[in-house]
Design goal:
By secondary structure, the chain is of the alpha/beta class. It folds into two domains: 173 residues, Carbamate kinase (3-Layer(aba) Sandwich), CATH 3.40.1160.10; 147 residues, VC0802-like (2-Layer Sandwich). Helix content is 33%, strand content 25%. It has an eight-stranded mixed beta sheet, with helices on both faces. A six-stranded antiparallel beta sheet has the order 14-15-13-16-18-17. It has a two-stranded antiparallel ribbon with strand order 4-5. A hairpin with an 8-residue loop joins β4 and β5. α1 packs across α4, α6 packs parallel to α8 and α7 runs antiparallel to α8. The longest helix is centred in the N-terminal third of the chain and has 16 residues. It binds aspartic acid and magnesium ion (MG). Aspartic acid (ASP) binds next to α6.
């Protein structure tokens, strides 16, 4: 029988009524002739509550016990979903990660999926089970301990199951009806995209459009899983939501597909560091060891053997970055005159695979920003993305101006 994976996020299973609503969507697919693997998140807010309990109990917690506690929200919704389906006369049963078994690395709280053997679930499908409800977000380590995949990890569970079972599609049910050209709370002309390419979704996901966990998109791209994002609060048809797919499957494309932003960035500049071989390694090694997620990096032209080095990172990592740099200076690994932090910046990016074949996107972007009087502090580019750092107070204005400049309110 053809197989679908359907994933329901926390708001889609937030209470018994919503679980019933989600189960109704599953039943419809079963009636259409699909076997279904349902992946559930915990009820919304539950995982945060569990994390809070762990932290209150043990500030320096044992990561294995953190996973034991934090994974439990999904066990509840998996069992309730199976019961709800049974009440609808759909043959269903629940599976916790270890029962599948979904095998992961032992990196607790950030484990990676290694293997999903099909035999157990396939055997039950062969016996007439029509729906396997699997607890998302969790697995089992080689040591036999419960692991979790990182926050938002149920998306990754869903895509991994779709790949392992050769599903026709992986439908991600959530509280929005798809992926938008930008955040509709900032730009009311934001438009839902019918299709978006994996590469673009990856850029948008990691740039702060929080619809899908980044790793789930990486996985979908690697295994060519057709991924659809759609609302669990609407009647859906074949064409609902946004399909995340191979770029060959998209005929009509705008050059730019979306505008993304990250609100809480900081720009840090090391003034006058020695410009010598190894200096970048001496700076960014300690930053990475300190767990600072460096994003953009700009090295200025050097004068008389010295240069300024600018990088960006999340605002809440500024103190950590400063400490790492001061420590490295004290150890004599680097030398700089001053470290200047600007904590009032935001990053705004335009993304589109059309940039590969169209020149002039950058200049169009800079013109749009300048006509609003917005100063650009740092620019970086990749094959399908241009990002700028600007003053945070202009972030909304910049998003709106770029959305307008690239005509994103109109379909290609
Ligand atoms: N419940 C987990 C979380 O809140 C996993 C998920 O929902 O994707 O992060
Ligand atoms: Mg999520």
């Amino acid at each position: 029988m053809p197989l679908l994976v359907m994933k329901f996020g926390g708001t889609s299973v937030a209470d018994l009524d919503r679980i019933r609503n989600a189960a109704g969507k599953v039943r419809r697919e079963v009636e259409r002739g699909y076997d279904v693997i349902v992946i559930v998140s915990a009820m919304s807010g539950k995982t945060n509550e569990l994390v809070g309990w762990v932290e209150q109990t043990s500030p320096m917690f044992d990561a294995r016990e953190y996973d034991a506690v934090v994974s439990s929200g999904e066990n509840v919704t998996a069992g309730l979903m199976a019961l709800t389906l049974q009440e609808m006369d759909v043959p269903a049963r629940s599976w916790q990660g270890w029962q599948v078994p979904l095998k992961t690395t032992s990196a607790h709280s950030a484990a990676r999926i290694e293997e999903i053997p099909r035999a157990n679930i396939d055997a039950k499908f062969a016996e007439g089970m029509r729906v396997a409800v699997v607890a998302g977000f969790q697995g089992i380590s080689p040591e036999g301990r419960i692991t979790t995949l990182g926050r938002g990890g149920s998306d990754t569970t869903a895509v991994a199951f779709a790949a392992a079972f050769g599903a026709e599609r992986c439908d991600i049910y959530t509280d929005v009806d798809g992926v938008y050209t930008t955040d509709p709370r900032i730009e009311d002309k934001a438009r839902k995209l019918d299709k978006i390419a994996f590469e673009e979704m990856l850029e948008l996901a990691s740039l702060g459009a929080k619809v899908l966990q980044t790793r789930s998109v990486e996985l979908a791209m690697r295994y060519k899983v057709r991924l659809r994002v759609l609302s669990s609060f609407e009647e859906n048809t074949e064409n609902s939501g946004t399909l995340v797919c191979d770029e060959e499957d998209i005929m009509e494309k705008n050059v730019v597909s979306g505008v993304a932003y990250v609100r809480d960035e900081a720009k840090m500049t090391l003034i006058s560091v020695a410009d010598r071989p190894g200096i970048a390694a001496a700076i960014f090694g300690p930053l990475s060891d300190a767990g600072v997620n460096v994003d953009m990096i700009v090295q200025n032209i050097s004068e008389e053997g010295r240069t300024d080095m600018t990088f960006s990172c999340p605002v809440n990592q500024v103190a950590r970055a400063e400490k790492a740099m001061q420590d490295a200076k004290e150890k004599g690994e680097i030398n700089f005159h001053d470290l200047v932090a600007d904590t009032d910046v935001a990053k705004v990016s335009v993304v589109g695979i059309g940039m590969r074949s169209h020149a002039g996107v950058a200049s169009q972007m800079f013109k749009a920003l300048s006509s609003e009087g917005i100063n650009i502090k740092v620019i970086t580019t990749s094959e399908i993305k241009i990002s700028v750092l600007i003053d945070r107070k202009y972030m909304e204005l910049a998003v709106q101006a770029l959305h307008d400049a690239f005509g994103l309110d109109k379909a290609a």
